[in-house]
Specification:
about 140 residues; alpha/beta; four-stranded parallel beta sheet; 4 helices; about 30% helix; globular
Amino acid sequence: MLAMAMDFRMDVAKYYDYFPVPFNDIDFYKTRIPAPASSILELGCGTGRVLIPLAPHCGHILGVDNSEAMLALCRAKLQAAGIPQEKAEVRLGNIAKKLRLARKFDLIIAPFRVFQALVTQDEIRAFFATVGSHLA
């Protein structure tokens, strides 16, 4: 497992899904999937609000988040939905540092306020370096 800073979202993770998103963006992301066999990388997947509904519409989706508490909820929701790990998986990772995932993806997304969490130029550069090195 990656060495990560303290998970500041640990206490709020269990309440995260109760905060409503002011719009329905799932259809927007579905229309961006190039083909049913496409691979998707979701940066900042959190509890799976976008990842889980996209999983049936692609070949494979990998979600990355820097909160193990959020990922634990996402894993539980994936299991409850009966989505196998071959179809959707999540990993601990910091999108504010360049990720090295050793594969390319057909689509890379960072839904809702993920990009707003990047506050320094180095974090923004690392985010785009991750996108650039993983986009097919």
